[in-house]
């Protein structure tokens, strides 16, 4: 995900956080300005006081650029590649009589901000006064690779707060709160449907269909798996040629979804990644596309604000297992770490190691709701957007 306005390049991407047990405090009354009642309530009474929420992550983008909305205006937009097996689990406990809202780990300031906004939203629905609370986040989303770790945190936090109040927030309301909390958000609140999403506005530009075409994805980490500081990325303007090119890719992706065509999906993803090289250049991109050609992949996809990437395969291709095995071997020979193998049709299954696609044990012990109690495995994240100073641990490696 990027935070770019249509005329600019990426802004901030994945959030920052730590695995420590200390908390950050925020005063709900200072963190919430106005809250409009766009949520729907499941009951007139409040919830139990404790709520949980979950949000999946993604594996970068299939398509990202600048597009025209229904009024012909340029809008930054993206289509993510869902990865539902990894995500963030949030637990929120209301503290009546308290004033502060705390978060653990302490540096999840975006999630904390989102929780306070959600509290104001839900308190309005329930006609209650604001109170304090405690937010706890756990998960296994790698940080700084362009997999939507901060959006996963934020959306899980909002859902947990709503659950604690007994309120059902619409996806549109969650999107609005997420954008308010982190300036731009991935469409993880919409649970994996293929959508062209305006990340800075929190609205859908186009519903592309029911599901992405079937494809097997062999994930890998470019740049040695180093996190990317998206604030340091260059900005660039978009001209009329850019708009025409992205609109052509949009039309091709629409056709790929309608016809369930993995080859056309791979073409769109590759061309979008190629254009993304002008903002975030990956030294291995040429080698990645060459490997795709040698092993029979239909294309590549690359996060536009991170180092996560994938090679896309047609699941109906002859000798699929052999292709995946040769892909893993070629990546290893090129010094590109392989991470996860998963499918675009996955809903909640845990991704598998590339050398044992769709069989054997998962590469990560983390289920969607978490089990090990640690948030974003891989060490501590500094409470600043300078994640490039710290290496990222990939659970699959």
Query: From N to C, what is the helix and strand string?
Result: EHEEEEHEHEHEEEHHHEEHE
For the largest sheet, list the strands in their spatial order. 1-5-6-4-3
Roughly how many Å is the radius of gyration? 20 Å
Discrete helix count = 8
Q: State mean pLDDT (0 to 100 scale).
A: 79
Low-confidence stretches: 2-22, 27-46, 353-397
By DSSP, the count of extended strands is 13
Helix content: 25-40%
The structural class is: alpha+beta
Largest sheet: 5 strands, mixed
Tell me the span between the first and last alpha carbons.
23 Å
Shape category: globular
Could you tell me the strand content as a percent range? 15-25%
Structural overview:
The chain has helices at 28-31, 109-126, 149-165, 171-182, 240-259, 262-276, 285-295, 320-333; strands at residues 24-26, 40-41, 50-68, 74-95, 101-104, 132-139, 167-168, 195-198, 203-207, 216-221, 299-302, 308-313, 338-343. It has a 5-stranded mixed β-sheet. It has a 4-stranded antiparallel β-sheet with strand order 11-12-10-13. A two-stranded antiparallel ribbon has the order 2-7. The radius of gyration is 20 Å and the shape is globular. The model is unreliable at 2-22, 27-46 and 353-397 (pLDDT under 50). It is built from 8 helices and 13 strands. The two termini are 23 Å apart. The protein is α+β, with helices and mostly antiparallel strands and 397 residues long. β5, α2 (109-126) and β6 (132-139) form a beta-alpha-beta unit.
């Amino acid at each position: 995900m990027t935070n770019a306005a249509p005329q600019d390049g990426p802004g901030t991407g994945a959030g920052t956080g730590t695995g420590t047990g200390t908390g950050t405090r925020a005063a709900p009354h200072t963190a919430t300005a106005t809250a409009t009642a766009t949520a729907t309530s499941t009951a007139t009474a409040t919830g139990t006081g404790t709520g949980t929420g979950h949000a999946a992550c993604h594996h970068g983008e299939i398509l990202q650029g600048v597009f025209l909305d229904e009024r012909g205006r340029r809008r930054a937009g993206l289509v993510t590649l869902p990865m539902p097996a990894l995500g963030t689990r949030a637990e929120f406990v209301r503290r009546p009589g308290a004033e502060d809202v705390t978060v653990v780990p302490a540096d999840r300031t975006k999630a904390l901000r989102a929780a306070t906004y959600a509290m104001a939203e839900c308190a309005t629905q329930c006609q209650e006064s604001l109170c304090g609370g405690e937010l706890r986040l756990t998960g296994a989303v790698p940080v700084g690779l362009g997999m939507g770790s901060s959006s996963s945190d934020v959306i899980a936090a909002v859902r947990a707060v709503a659950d604690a109040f007994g309120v059902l927030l619409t996806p549109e309301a969650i999107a609005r709160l997420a954008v308010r909390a982190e300036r731009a958000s991935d469409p993880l609140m919409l649970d994996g449907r293929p959508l062209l999403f305006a990340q800075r506005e929190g609205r859908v530009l186009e519903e592309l269909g029911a599901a992405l075409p079937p494809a097997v994805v062999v994930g890998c980490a470019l740049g040695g798996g180093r996190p990317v500081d998206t604030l340091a990325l260059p900005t660039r303007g978009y001209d009329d040629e850019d708009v025409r090119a992205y609109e052509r890719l949009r039309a091709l992706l629409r056709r790929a979804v309608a016809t369930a065509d993995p080859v056309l999906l791979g073409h769109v993803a590759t061309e979008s990644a190629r254009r993304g090289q002008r903002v975030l250049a990956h030294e291995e991109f040429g080698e990645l596309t060459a490997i795709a050609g040698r092993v029979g992949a239909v294309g590549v996809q690359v996060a536009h604000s991170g180092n996560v990437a994938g090679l896309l395969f047609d699941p109906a291709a002859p000798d699929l297992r052999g292709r995946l095995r040769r892909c893993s071997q070629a990546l290893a020979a090129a010094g590109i770490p392989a991470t996860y193998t998963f499918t675009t049709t996955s809903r909640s299954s845990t991704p598998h190691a590339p050398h044992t696609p769709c069989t054997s044990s998962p590469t990560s012990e983390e289920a969607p709701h978490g089990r090990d109690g640690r948030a974003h495995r891989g060490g501590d994240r500094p409470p600043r957007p300078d994640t490039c100073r710290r290496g990222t641990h990939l659970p699959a490696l």
